[in-house]
Model the fold of this input.
Amino acid sequence: MNKPKILTVTDLPGVGAVTAEKLKESGYDNLMSIAVSSPSEFSEITGLTENAARKVIQAARDNLAMGFESGEQLLERRAQVIKIGTGCKAFDELIGGGFESGAISECFGEFGSSKSQIAHILAVRAQLPVEQGGANGEVVFIDGESTFRPERIKQIAEGMGLDANEILKKIHVARAFNSDHQMLMSEKSEDLVKSNNVKLIIVDSLTGHFRADFSGRGQLADRQQKLNRHMHTLMKLAGSYNLAVYVTNQVMAKPDTFFGDPTAAIGGNIVAHNSQVRLYLRKGKKGTRVAKLIDAPALPDGEAIFRITEKGIEDV
Ligand code: ADP
Ligand code: MG
Done:
């Protein structure tokens, strides 16, 4: 006898209407999102035991072609990737043309290294047509450090000869007050993504609230687990909607051990196997800034020197 075909979440064995509703509320509204979830997060959301959760996840996996893909298929998927440029030649070259859709890109560096400025520049440039180095899309800006400045957006947009009000209309800003709120905002942003052709999500900063909220002794594991979940949400958005995610991470001049080795991929294996870019930003000579590529699977190591100016970013 043929097994019934599983096409939607409610077709999964063990998922009734109530569970499906809970899943939907948490953003798990398709088989792929369930297939890539972990039994512990799944059981937390649904109230099922981890064992039952594992079976549901397995069923979702069995019904998706989650196995191997040919190199040709992968190349085809790579062809869908959109790259959002900064407008600085050296910088864009360093990262292979721009910040990519379908991935999380991270800039880390000390205070004043230009992480937030790059966020503002990307928020404008993501709206440019693809031919001009943009993604022709709207932007979600999750602001965890109250650093978003509409005036700065206006300045950059006008410097590029764009209508600043039109640009500002397409940047959806959410202030995040603490780490839980930030996680909630990233989950909620899916609604905006669906209805507004969002092509860039910015989280500035990714880590600040987590650092503050889990600063006590013995809280490291909790912090990493929550941060992992946060990254997971962002990764899913990046993959499901082919959008770029830009996150910032402040480190001390002498890199601290927030993520252990500062040059190791944050978020562990959740992001490690996705083509993602990590850039270390630092202050250079005479007001310049230096970006250093940390680990990108297909890009040569290197550095780019640039300068933040009134118009945005410039080559030196
Ligand atoms: P971070 O987010 O890494 O802490 P920022 O991106 O906020 O750092 O700031 C980087 C630098 O950008 C600042 O030190 C400042 O000199 C420069 N900057 C900010 N706004 C402007 C502007 N309108 N024109 C020129 N430089 C600016
Ligand atoms: Mg900043």
Q: What stands out?
A: The chain has 13 helices and eleven strands.
